[in-house]
Structures are given as structure tokens and as C-alpha cells.
Write a structure and sequence with these properties.
single chain; about 325 residues; Transcription Regulator spoIIAA; Rossmann fold; EC 2.1.1.191; S-adenosyl-L-methionine; methyltransferase; methyltransferase activity
């Protein structure tokens, strides 16, 4: 292994030791510990490290130098023993099918009992390896914090709900009702399981929750019917052929706001397309729904540093000041 790789491993060890000293690995909350993808760590742009207690999970977006991961694992053994970590795994995203393997497991590690993302008292089913996404987006934490502040006593629409993490957080925060909409039935089923996983939280157990498997751009009537909504989340994929392409389809969402939102509704518009900047959403609002007023852009998670803020996940809080346009009236 090259001297350069040795230096990079030493940097990673120091970085993770700092996280340990901050107490982050003694908490059960899931988070990103190292984000090379933000171009802030030269030579390590291909690597991210996440913590899903008690699992430390590496994701490689390109092939590391031969011996890099073995040496990294050896260097981290002392660090692992001083923390709550019981397993170290890696996903090879640069390979077809994103295969994965365990580099280290302790004798007490229970794979089946450990596949959860955790957020305070809430838990979410995840799958590590074999797919692009675990089922829980760590960089969306600012959005989940926003939802906690908005949901109490209100009816929530969660568009492109995926595995319904927003819904579980809204329910736990006291939402009156949550309507989840996604065309992926498998993701919605996992969303239902996430709700069932958290029924020991009284607010989750008592919240009225719906799961609609719909092609959103073709099902506005069924989405409108439970409305109007006091809190709306639009979290579409940036590019999913045959489903949604942000550059051409986001405008179709914005123009529907008056038919979905009650007056004074709070709306979170999410944009995960690096090629589209802040002005993209602002332009759509001005053209399609000028009754929406920007409250502010949410601060990105500090766990996801990026040299270019437009490359990051972008989250915009808007408030709808117009009247609900009931299409049935």
C-alpha cells in the first residue's frame, strides 16, 4: 500500500477518534461520521462512513487501493473497542448490485437485531448493502427537525414518501393525520412497517395514517380528496426515468399547491439535483404559485460538508398565503 494511502488512513482514524471524543458513538442516533463526497477531504472523495448503532458502515463509490480497507480495519480496532461499535461493514457501490461484506463483527453482534436507523426513541427498518439506498436518508435530518416543529395537530401530506420516515416523525410530533403517497408499493409497505415498529410511541399509535400507492403526476384527484393539508412535503427523486424528472416535472407539483394546501400551510420543497440551484425553485414559485412566500432555506446537516452548497440537498420552507382552491366547489 502506498504512503499516500497510509496518510489517508491516518486522517480517517484521527477524524473518527474526534467523533468518538464528542460522544457521537455512545449515542444510538444514526448519523454520517465521514462525508468524502462533499469534496472537502482530498483523496477520500470516494468514501463515506455512516453509523447505525452498533454498526459502522463504509460505502465506497470507486475502488480503493488494494489493501486499503484491510489496513483501515486493523487501524480502527482500538477505536472500535473504545466505542459501542460491534460491527464494521462495507458496500461497494462502484460494482453492479452494490455487493457488501463484513470486515469485522464482535461475538455479541446480532445482524437481524441491528438493522435499524435510530432517531431518539424512533426506529426505522434499513437494509445495508445490495441496494443504492438504506431506506433512511441521513442528510434529511434538517427536514425531519422541521417536521417536528410543524406537525402538531395538523394534517400532513407526504408526497414521494418512500419508506415514510417523515410520516413517523410527524406522527410522533402529534400530527392529526398523515397521508403518504408513493408509486413504489414496496417502499410504502416498508413505511407501514416503520409505523408498526414505533407503535410503542403513543402519538404514533394514535395518529391516523394513510398509504396511497399512486403515480403522483396522474392521481391528483385521489391525493386532493383527504385535504386540504396544513403541512406538505414534496420530496421527489431528482431523476427517475418514467416517474419523475425534476427539471421538467417539479413545476407540475408547484402548480397544484392551491388545490392541496389550506391557507397558512407550511410547505417543505426538497431538491436533490446538484445541477439545479436555489433559483430553480424560486423561479417555479414565482411563475406557478406566487401566493407562496419563502420563509427560508433550511441549514444543511453539518454531517454533510460540501464545498458547493448547491451540490447539497436543498430544503426550502414556503408558506402558502392564498386560499384553498377546492376543485369540487
Amino acid at each position: 500500500m502506498s504512503a499516500h494511502s497510509e496518510t489517508l488512513i491516518a486522517q480517517l482514524e484521527e477524524h473518527l477518534q474526534g467523533k468518538l471524543e464528542q460522544g457521537l458513538l455512545r449515542s444510538t442516533d444514526s448519523r454520517r461520521l465521514f462525508h468524502g463526497r462533499g469534496q472537502c477531504y482530498p483523496g477520500l472523495e470516494w468514501l463515506v462512513i455512516d453509523y447505525y448503532a452498533p454498526v459502522l458502515w463504509l460505502t465506497c463509490f470507486s475502488e480503493p487501493e488494494e489493501g486499503f480497507l484491510v489496513n483501515l480495519c486493523d487501524r480502527l480496532k482500538g477505536f472500535i473497542e473504545a466505542s459501542e461499535v460491534q460491527a464494521l461493514g462495507v458496500s461497494y457501490r462502484f460494482q453492479q448490485g452494490a455487493p457488501s461484506e463484513w470486515l469485522y463483527t464482535s461475538s455479541e453482534f446480532d445482524v437481524e437485531g441491528s438493522m435499524f436507523a435510530r432517531r431518539g426513541e424512533l426506529k426505522f427498518h434499513i437494509q445495508l448493502g445490495g441496494r443504492q439506498n438504506s431506506g433512511f436518508f441521513l442528510d434529511m435530518e434538517p427536514g425531519r427537525c422541521w417536521m417536528e416543529q410543524q406537525a402538531k395537530g395538523r394534517k400532513v401530506l407526504n408526497l414521494f414518501s418512500y419508506t415514510c420516515a417523515f410520516s413517523v416523525v410527524a406522527a410522533a410530533a402529534g400530527a392529526a393525520e398523515v397521508v403518504n403517497v408513493d408509486m413504489a408499493r414496496g417502499a410504502l409497505k416498508q413505511g407501514q412497517k416503520n409505523h408498526q415498529l414505533n407503535t410503542d410511541v403513543a402519538e404514533v399509535a394514535h395518529c391516523k395514517t394513510r398509504f396511497l400507492a399512486e403515480n403522483i403526476l396522474k392521481s391528483w384527484g385521489r391525493i386532493r380528496r383527504p385535504g386540504p393539508y396544513g403541512v406538505l412535503v414534496f420530496d421527489p427523486p431528482s431523476f427517475q426515468r418514467g416517474s419523475f424528472v425534476a427539471k421538467q416535472d417539479y413545476t407540475k407539483l408547484i402548480r397544484r399547491i392551491p388545490q392541496l394546501a389550506e391557507q397558512g400551510a407550511d410547505i417543505l420543497l426538497c431538491l436533490n439535483a446538484p445541477e439545479l440551484g436555489e433559483e430553480f425553485i424560486a423561479g417555479l414559485i414565482a411563475e406557478e404559485c406566487p401566493d407562496c412566500v419563502l420563509v427560508g432555506r433550511l441549514e444543511p446537516s453539518k454531517d454533510f460538508p460540501d464545498q458547493n452548497k448547491d451540490q447539497q440537498l436543498k430544503l426550502f420552507h414556503y408558506r402558502y398565503n392564498g386560499e384553498w382552491q377546492n376543485p369540487r366547489s
